[in-house]
Amino acid sequence: MAVRVKICGITRLQDVHAACDAGADALGFVFYERSPRHVTIAAAAALVRALPPFVQSVGLFVNAEPAFIASVLQEVPLDLLQFHGDETPAACARFDRPYIKAARVNRDTDLLKYAADFEAARGLLLDAYVQGVPGGTGERFDWSLIPANVSKPVILSGGLTPDNVAEAVQRVRPWAVDVSSGVEASKGIKDAHKLAQFIARAKAL
Questions:
Q1: What is the value of pTM for the model shown?
Q2: Residue 25 is among the residues annotated as catalytic for this protein
Q3: pLDDT over 80 at 129, yes or no
């Protein structure tokens, strides 16, 4: 079965079109002000309205106040929430919306326990652990740290590019891959050629 592909950190309408035309399954919108890929509620609402059928919209939050998340959901019809901070299982589940939970992986990360703790999550997004940075670092982690028997679908992230995504899919066999900086011309600005290459190579296996 072909791997699914999420393109994260979308900030421009032309990148919505480029990603969808290339075959992306989901687009991610970052509601975290410290990120260079941050979008406002109004901008995200306009971008999500431009999505074609069967492409999911994903909202990324990092330790956000519940009231802020609720305000986003009032304006932006997100299909899926992505929690990328220190949120508890209860905090993730309170919005009556499907969610995925990010885990920043190093040798001390117990992914089996993490999956059990976040039993209600639709999947685990595995990213590189970088001290003080919640994600979007472009760093790759040691894929051998992922147990074969994780009880949740694995979404592989962290340092993926058009040059290594085929190897990642072949070695890890994830449910999906997630990329942001690896398909950019500059922070928050996607490169249409890299997008097309990444998606084609991810789905070729």
A1: 0.94
A2: no
A3: no
